[in-house]
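In response to the reviewer comment on reproducibility (Comment 2.3), we provide here a single inverse folding case reported in full, input and output, so that an independent group could reproduce the run without further information from us. The structure tokens appear first.
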């Protein structure tokens, strides 16, 4: 049962990741690092809620959830910027986000949309490898 609570911690860490990504992105700052903080928060909350140190499945789950969170954060950030430019309600822009992404793809500008979440995912991957490495050291020394 406590393991399930640990995965709730991963989801809450993912919410932190999305929130940070969008908030920093609204100031037009480099927000890809927010995923690493969300990844760390996910593992921390997993440990707090489950009472166990994050092992392989938890690390992989946190990695996947936070990478997906960065792409969701980019969609929300893009939608907020478009809503400001068009002076339209956010719910209208969010409901039509797929159309904006399709227009970016047709204009060969999809890389501008994907670059920051991809960089953030690489940062999270590095943090995940470091976490695996540290877990390997502690488990062999015990």
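Designed residues, in position order:
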């Amino acid at each position: 049962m406590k393991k399930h609570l640990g995965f709730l911690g991963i989801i809450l860490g993912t919410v932190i990741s999305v929130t940070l990504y969008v908030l920093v992105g609204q100031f037009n700052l480099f927000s890809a690092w927010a995923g690493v903080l969300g990844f760390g928060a996910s593992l921390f909350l997993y440990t707090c809620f489950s009472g166990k140190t994050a092992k392989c499945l938890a690390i992989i789950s946190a990695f996947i959830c936070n990478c997906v969170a960065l792409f969701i954060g980019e969609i929300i950030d893009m939608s907020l910027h478009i809503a400001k430019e068009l002076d339209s309600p956010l719910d209208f822009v969010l409901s039509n986000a797929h159309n904006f992404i399709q227009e970016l793809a047709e204009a060969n500008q999809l890389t501008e949309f994907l670059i920051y979440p991809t960089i953030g995912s690489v940062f999270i991957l590095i943090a995940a490898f470091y976490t695996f490495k540290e877990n390997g050291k502690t488990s062999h020394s015990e």
